[in-house]
Write a structure and sequence with these properties.
This protein has a 3-stranded antiparallel β-sheet. Strand 2 and strand 3 form a beta hairpin. By secondary structure, the chain is mostly helical. The C terminus is likely disordered. The longest helix is centred in the first third of the chain and has 25 residues. It has a single domain, classed as Arc Repressor Mutant, subunit A (Orthogonal Bundle).
Length: about 170
């Protein structure tokens, strides 16, 4: 005899996860189109943006890896490529020989300045203009709660949290 367990497939938690995945996937695909038009991959854009928003325009490699959701070897490959293109540079950590910083260069900031107006327009077109101020505030709060639970290291090396974090 076959035993069938009934599940609630209409559970709001499943719906929330599905909608989040669909929205994220759609936004990521559209963002990729926007940044590749400027000769950057989405991860290169992410690295430049994270560095530009960090104190002294730099992050330890381990913090950058955590924020970009890459492994140490993954961020090393990305930074190697970006360093060859003159977008970032590595600096030795003066207090820890095992650590190094990645810093955005003038060339990297110039490239980011080319991309940023379109990026902000993209965000407004596909996300923020579709929400009221209150909805956006709630969304930011909710996303920070979830991010901090699943990626507690994601803000390592960043300024204190506020409207501009992540």
């Amino acid at each position: 005899m076959l035993c069938v367990t009934r599940h609630n497939y209409d559970d709001a938690r499943i719906t929330a996860m599905g909608l989040f995945a669909e929205a994220f996937g759609g936004l990521s695909a559209r963002l990729a189109e926007q940044v590749t038009g400027h000769g950057l991959s989405p991860i290169e854009f992410e690295v430049l943006l994270r560095l530009a928003r960090s104190p002294e325009y730099r992050l330890r490699m381990s913090d950058l890896a955590a924020q970009a959701q890459l492994t140490t070897s993954g961020i090393t490959r990305v930074v190697d490529r970006m360093e060859r293109d003159g977008l970032v540079a590595r600096l030795a950590c003066p207090t820890d020989r095992r650590s190094s910083y990645t810093v955005i260069t003038e060339t990297g900031r110039a490239r980011l300045d080319e991309v940023l107006p379109g990026h902000v327009e993209f965000i407004d077109k596909w996300l923020t203009s579709r929400l009221s101020r209150e909805q956006l505030s709630h969304l930011l709060s909710a996303l920070r709660i979830v991010r901090d639970a699943v990626r507690p290291d994601a803000t390592a090396g960043a300024q204190t949290s506020g409207p501009a974090d992540a």
